[in-house]
Methyltransferase type 11
Amino acid sequence: MIHNELDVLAELVPIGNGLKVIELGCGSARLLTELLERCPACEALALEVDAVQHAKNLARLPEMLAPRLRFVRDSATAIPAADGGFELALMLKSLHHIPQGAMQTALAETWRVLRPGGWLYVSEPVYEGALNDIVKLYNDEGPVRAAAQAALDRALSTGQWQQTAERRFDMPAHFPNWESFEQRMLYPSFADHQITDDLRQRVKAAFDPHCGANGAHFTRPIHVRLLQKQAV
């Protein structure tokens, strides 16, 4: 069980050496923010396509991090950065959100903006477990998660990347009550899951047996692959 994925990243990549980092599909950028707090010599660019989340990120950017962290509303398929400007790229549960036809473009763009020898850290949820069984009632990510892994395999087959590490572990996921699960998982700002009253009740019926006095506790299996850019 891993409680902080930054510990996994720090084990695989020398983040304390002052890296320039780009996160693609940053969401709330929680791990990236903690990385910058832990490593004062690092700088980062964070991309997010969701306008609502991007506005939240700008509003709560810590003043002490503002000189080293820049948020941009843009896509991994057309990264607004020069060639070879970063030592580390992060895709944290974001590759499977990219349209399947554009995944290879996003990985090619990531290769472009990394320096030779730079790392791409890809963390993807595994399609299994009790939480997954609930989520797939309204958002079955089996095909897109498989497509994300296949896209990485195709990228490796080009010779432009080498996979240098792989990790599998569980992470805790806690929801204080049904209302917190509903807001966070059924109605995210970046997706419309077409939730009807009937579907909502079916999801709640699947969630409720897991929820006790201290909320609902799940484990989420994670698969990490670390790729390194090869000079070709």
About this structure: The radius of gyration is 18 Å. The chain is about 35% helix and 30% strand. The longest helix spans residues 142-157.
